[in-house]
Amino acid sequence: MSAEAHGHMEIPFTVHARPDTGLYNGKLGVWLFLASEVMLFGALFSSLILIRTGSTTPWPEGWKELHVYPAMINTFVLIASSVFVIMAWANLRLRKPKVARMWIAATLLCGFAFMGIKGYEYSLSFAHHHFPKTNNFFAIYFTMTGLHGLHVLGGMVVFAYFLTKGWSMHEHEYQRFTNRIEIVGLYWHFVDLVWIFLFPTLYLL
Amino acid sequence: MSDHAIEQHDNQEHHDDHDSPENIQKEIRKYLGVFLALVAGTILTVWVRLGPLHLPEGQAILVALIIAFVKGSLVAGFFMHLLNEKKLIYSVLILTVFFFAVLMYLPVTEVLGKFGYH
């Protein structure tokens, strides 16, 4: 009996590549999404440059106003998490799902560590009475790091899903599950990539 | 499902050389190398700004952006596999770069104007 006769339709090309694109659909989809994300963060970077160059008062120096070392540790945490998620994908390809699950858990832990350190950093800023309303520098700092933090949180939700309810997929659709980890990995690397530019732009210049 | 059962299941699927265990192990070593380069790049960025160099603002911005660009390229090239991707992905990215350049045109001309390059 066909899938349609059961009342649901099979999503096409979730495992194997479409002949015309050479890609499975999810991968093309995530790249299109990431293209839109480039424009989202690009607009904010563009705003930052315009506000900074157009400022009539001296622009605050990030390394004096913000907390560089917690942010540097967060950079290491995100870089490590990028390696962890790619290790998860590599181990799935090596047919070692238990090891892969461990790396997914490690990635999620890095997400928690990043958010914890970011929360600590925010609390230090608040203790110094630095809020988004303080000036344009803090307004754009909280906007950009806040939006980035939301992206980290989104990735963590997906990783938590794959560790729990979504994990069972690997038992009956192994390759599709592997592709899912590749896709969330691409998203996670992009979040890492954005931080690589945010860190020097906001904290060091 | 046991690992053995997964293996049996996957034997029915097509796997090219790219997915051979030797190749994957080689990739993993590459990823670890990139990780070390990214850590070194981060330390270098902080050292250039907070170390004994005391670069003027313009030079500091330039150096920080060059390092960030190199680090970003490593992430995109190796972790996101852009060094070896399908043509359609490159087409999407070329379009993205074009629109990103349009987005950056105004602020960049503003910066150049500020430094007297109009």
Describe the structure.
Chain A has helices spanning 25-54, 62-65, 68-93, 97-127, 136-163, 169-172, 174-204. In chain A, helix 1 (25-54) packs parallel to helix 7 (174-204), helix 4 runs antiparallel to helix 5 and helix 5 runs antiparallel to helix 7. In chain A, 75% of the residues lie in helices and 0% in strands. Chain A has a single domain, classed as Cytochrome c oxidase, subunit III, four-helix bundle (Four Helix Bundle (Hemerythrin (Met), subunit A), Up-down Bundle), CATH 1.20.120. In chain A, 35% of the residues are buried. Chain A is mainly alpha-helical. Chain B is mainly alpha-helical and 118 residues long. Chain B folds into two domains: 23-84; 85-118. Chain B has helices at residues 3-11, 21-50, 57-79, 87-114. In chain B, helix 2 runs antiparallel to helix 3 (57-79). The longest helix of chain B has 30 residues, at 21-50.
